[in-house]
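Comment thread on ticket #2218

A.B. wrote:
> Attaching the input chain for the structure job we discussed in standup.
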Amino acid sequence: MKGGYGYKKLADDLYVVGATEPNNPTFQKYAETRVVPVDYRDAEEVIALLPHYAMYLSARNGVLTVRAWPNQLPQILADIATIDQPVRQVEGTVIIAEVTAEAKVMLGLGKIVGGVSTKDQVLDVDGLSVSFSDSVTIASLLQVMQAQGKAQLKASTSIVVPEGSQSTISLGREVRQLIQSQTNTGQTIDGSR
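C.D. wrote:
> Ran it. Output below, let me know if you need it in another format.
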C-alpha cells in the first residue's frame, strides 16, 4: 500500500497485489466496478472535482461508474458522497419603491448616500425596531406609507439562488406602440418591448 499498489483479498491467506493504473493487466483483471447515481451534482462536475480519481471514474446519464481496486473503493465512494450533497439555497427579497423625503427619513434612509450597504442597519419607526433583513416588515411599512401617499411601490420579487452564486434582477418596462397597418382591417398593436 505504501508503494501505491492496489490489492484484492482472494482467500484468507492469499492477496493479489498490482499497480493502480487502469491499463495494467492485473488491474483490469481484479479491479471492481461500482455504479453510483449522482443526486445533487452533475456527474461530469464530480469527476472534475476529483481529478486525482479521474482515471477510475466515468460518467454517463447522471451516473458515475467507479472502477478501482477493492482497497481504493471505500475512499473514492466516500469522497463522491461528500461532494454529492444538496446545494444550500439563499432566498432574497427585493422591494422597489419611490418614497417621499419624509418617508425616507421615517425609514432611516435620510443619512444614507448612494451605494452604502444597509444590510446591518436597524431602523426605529414609531417605536418598532426593524432590521433591513426583515423584508416582510419593510414591505408592510411601505404599504402603510403608500396609503398615506408617502411611498409608491413599484415592484417586489423574491429570488432563490444557490449559496455562493450571484443573481441579477432587472426592472424593465413594457411599451406598446400603435403602428399604422396597410391592410383593410385597420390598425394593429405591436407588443414589442
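A.B. wrote:
> Thanks. Noting for the ticket: The chain is about 20% helix and 35% strand.
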